[in-house]
């Protein structure tokens, strides 16, 4: 056997052994995945959870068609943002009554950033990561303009030094625990504490963490957090996002979009706004019930799942993939950019390659769906609820085959929308 063949055989054996020991393997049945696809893009759009079609059918045919407007009460539609919020809350370590579901991440971010600035009125700076997802940076700029503040871009690793110099001027520090491009994991505990030591608030964007990692927003004393419903939570395209606000801020929380559903007595249709008590004041307008209830059904995929065990499996999958990359891809121009240390890795592996776009397109054609971020990052998102070690090896071997034969278009057309 050639060394290359024996390396591949060894990896097949490892994958088979790791999958045989996987006590979470049965969870894959909670998703309706096409049989011949290796889906490594759940960090962008989660696949369809098996519980969703029947739940949506019931919402549409029974609750809406038969129950009509009475379903706002009878089917619990009115309470859905708070109920689904609490379900997400369980995944992020939030006790009930602090998380609300609805609107997009961008809207929730605007609310959270603006409300945080209002909670620290004498501090003129908003701090965010220069590598943060664009919407986070744009909205920090927008809130700063609106409130006459300034934005400082500080890498998470540089935060302690920055705060030592200017901490007493910072209203809020806004970061993501996982870099959406590289998959690097930052230490939420250290950064939250650093913000608090400076008297600032800590706001986290959990889009790439909720449902992927065990989180403990209450335990860490996080002030505000947002996240989307369509990545690791698999709530469907454009699923409602969530907003967490720690209970200690509720009585003073002022939201920038005081819509009627956040009123203390919405059906009084009063002339002026009085905020509802608790997180309900973060409601804005009529909630998107079909999407909310699809998300609620999707979240049942987490029923009984221990997130610490899910994290252990996720690290096993990404660690194994990095070993496959190391064994199979070195001569082909791929460089892993995700840290090898497990404690610094989210639930994704990113490889740098000059032809990342062409390779992502070609991989999809051979049944491995990953994605890329311009100009040269190939991302493999790993959701341990439905991914196996064999899937990771299939992705690596197909990537090697494409790379060896240069069997891809080096400059394919730019695709349509991706998030
Ligand atoms: C970290 C992060 N924040 C926000 C968003 C998107 O926000 P929205 O749900 O409003 O499109 C993304 C999308 O990929 C993201 O990665």
TrEMBL record:
Question: What InterPro entries does the annotation carry?
Answer: Kynureninase, PyrdxlP-dep_Trfase, PyrdxlP-dep_Trfase_major, PyrdxlP-dep_Trfase_small
Reaction equation(s) it catalyzes: 3-hydroxy-L-kynurenine + H2O = 3-hydroxyanthranilate + L-alanine + H(+); L-kynurenine + H2O = anthranilate + L-alanine + H(+)
The answer, when asked if Hydrolase is one of the entry's keywords, is yes
Q: Where does pyridoxal 5'-phosphate bind?
A: 105-106, 133-136, 205, 208, 230, 260, 286
Pathway assigned in UniProt:
Amino-acid degradation; L-kynurenine degradation; L-alanine and anthranilate from L-kynurenine: step 1/1; Cofactor biosynthesis; NAD(+) biosynthesis; quinolinate from L-kynurenine: step 2/3
Q: Name one Pfam family in it.
A: KYNU_C
Q: Which residues span the membrane?
A: none
Print the keywords alphabetically: Hydrolase, Pyridine nucleotide biosynthesis, Pyridoxal phosphate
Its cofactor is: pyridoxal 5'-phosphate
Quote the EC number: 3.7.1.3
A GO molecular-function descriptor = pyridoxal phosphate binding
**Group of enzyme by EC:** hydrolase
Task: Respond yes or no to whether keyword Nucleotide-binding is given for this record.
Answer: no
Which Gene Ontology biological process is one annotated for this entry? NAD+ biosynthetic process
Similarity comment text for this entry: Belongs to the kynureninase family.
User: Cross-referenced PANTHER family, in alphabetical order?
Assistant: KYNURENINASE (PTHR14084:SF0)
What does the record note on quaternary structure? Homodimer.
Q: What does this protein do?
A: Catalyzes the cleavage of L-kynurenine (L-Kyn) and L-3-hydroxykynurenine (L-3OHKyn) into anthranilic acid (AA) and 3-hydroxyanthranilic acid (3-OHAA), respectively.
What name does UniProt use for this protein?
Answer: Kynureninase
Q: Which gene encodes it?
A: kynU
């Amino acid at each position: 056997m050639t060394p290359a063949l024996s390396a591949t055989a060894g990896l097949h054996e490892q994958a088979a052994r790791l999958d045989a020991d996987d006590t979470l393997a049965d969870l894959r049945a909670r998703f309706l995945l096409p049989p011949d696809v290796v889906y490594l893009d759940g960090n962008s759009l989660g696949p369809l959870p098996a519980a969703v079609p029947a739940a949506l059918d019931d919402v549409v045919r029974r609750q809406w068609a038969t129950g009509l407007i009475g379903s706002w009460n009878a089917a619990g539609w009115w309470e859905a943002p708070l109920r689904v919020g609490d379900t997400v809350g369980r995944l992020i370590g939030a006790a009930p009554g602090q998380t609300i579901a609805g609107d997009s991440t961008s809207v929730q971010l605007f609310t959270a950033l603006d409300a945080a600035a209002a909670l620290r009125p004498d501090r003129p700076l908003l701090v965010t990561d220069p590598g943060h997802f664009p919407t986070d940076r744009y909205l920090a700029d927008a809130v700063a303009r609106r409130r006459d503040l300034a934005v400082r871009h500080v890498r998470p690793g540089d935060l302690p030094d920055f705060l030592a110099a200017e901490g007493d001027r910072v209203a809020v520090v806004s970061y993501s625990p996982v870099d959406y491009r590289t998959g690097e994991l930052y230490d939420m505990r250290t950064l939250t504490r650093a913000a608090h030591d400076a008297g600032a608030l800590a706001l986290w964007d959990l889009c790439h963490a909720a449902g992927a990692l065990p989180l403990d927003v209450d335990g860490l004393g996080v002030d505000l957090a947002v996240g989307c419903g369509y990545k690791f939570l698999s709530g469907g395209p454009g699923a409602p996002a969530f907003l967490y606000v720690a209970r200690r801020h509720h009585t003073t929380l002022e939201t920038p979009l005081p819509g009627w559903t956040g009123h203390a007595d919405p059906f009084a249709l009063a002339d002026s706004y009085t905020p509802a008590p608790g997180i309900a004041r973060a409601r804005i307008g009529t909630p998107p019930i079909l999407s909310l209830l699809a998300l609620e059904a999707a979240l049942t995929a987490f029923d009984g799942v221990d997130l610490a065990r899910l994290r252990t499996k996720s690290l096993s999958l990404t660690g194994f993939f990095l070993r496959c990359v190391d064994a199979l891809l070195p001569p082909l121009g791929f460089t892993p950019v995700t840290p090898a240390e497990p404690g610094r890795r989210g639930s994704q592996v990113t490889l740098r390659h000059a032809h990342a776009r062409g390779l992502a397109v070609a991989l999809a054609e051979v049944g491995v769906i990953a994605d890329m971020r311009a100009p040269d990052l190939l991302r493999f998102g790993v959701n341990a609820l439905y991914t196996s070690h064999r899937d990771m090896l299939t992705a690596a071997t197909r990537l090697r085959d494409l790379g060896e034969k240069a069997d891809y278009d080096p400059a394919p057309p730019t695709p349509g929308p991706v998030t």
